Amino acid sequence: GLMEPKDGVRKGRILKLGVKAPNDPIVKDRLHLKAHIGTENFDRFKSRVGHNGIVTIKLDGASCYWEIGPKGMQFWSPRISKVTGSRIDYNAKVGDLIHTNLQSRASGMGELNYVDTKTGRVLSSAETGGILNSNSPIPIGVKPVVTIYRVDKLNRKDIHNYDYGSQLFAIEGFASLHPDLRAPHIVTWEQAQ
């Protein structure tokens, strides 16, 4: 409707139309992990990393970027939505992990998995994708677990190129903030082979 201002002149409401530009956080390139199967690939991998290198086991789920600060934690997919042009938001699919907060700010990369709370079984990447792509809430009896593989920024300082031992120290600190945040499982060279 029309409004009647004090000066007696009738004016209509103004409607502005526009498209919201994507406002995604600036993130490092996604984590590219390759399986090293067979003795030839494994030996080549071991020579690149060195005898004292740190070896972790990765569970296949859904890659995610994460960010933590005073207002909580946020999670996104590395993929861009064809509909919105923004990164796909995982916040509705990670339960109370979004309430994990920290006075400082940090961001990085991890792997989102779902665990059956009765059996302890980690759901496959296909099952994880089904939960994330569904419009339904997280199924009862399933909880999200995020393994943090990399810390990119800590208090605006770029640390993604730090050696993995230093990274692991920061990762373990973040993983201690919530029972469903995890540090990667470290194995010996013998176990990895």
Strand content: 25-35%
Question: What's the average pLDDT?
Answer: 82
Total DSSP helices: 4
Strands, total number: 9
Helix content: 10-25%
Which stretches are low in confidence, meaning pLDDT under 50 for 5 or more residues running? 18-22
Radius of gyration: 22 Å
Structural class: alpha+beta
H/E topology pattern? HEEEEEHEEHEEH
First and last CA, distance: 73 Å
Sketch the major β-sheet.
Answer: 7 strands, mixed
The rough form would be described as globular
Describe it.
By secondary structure, the chain is an alpha+beta fold. Helices cover 19% and strands 28% of the residues. It has four helices and nine strands, in the order H-E-E-E-E-E-H-E-E-H-E-E-H. The protein has helices at 39-49, 125-133, 164-175, 189-192; strands at residues 55-57, 62-69, 72-80, 87-89, 106-116, 142-154, 157-158, 181-182, 185-187. Strands 2, 3, 4, 5, 6, 7 and 8 form a seven-stranded mixed β-sheet that branches. A two-stranded antiparallel ribbon has the order 1-9. A hairpin with a 2-residue loop joins strand 6 (142-154) and strand 7. The chain starts with 38 loop residues before the first helix and ends with a helix. 21% of the residues are buried. The model is unreliable at 18-22 (pLDDT under 50).
SSE arrangement:
Layout: H1 39-49, E1 55-57, E2 62-69, E3 72-80, E4 87-89, E5 106-116, H2 125-133, E6 142-154, E7 157-158, H3 164-175, E8 181-182, E9 185-187, H4 189-192
Parallel strand pairs: 6-8
Antiparallel strand pairs: 1-9, 2-3, 2-5, 3-4, 5-6, 6-7
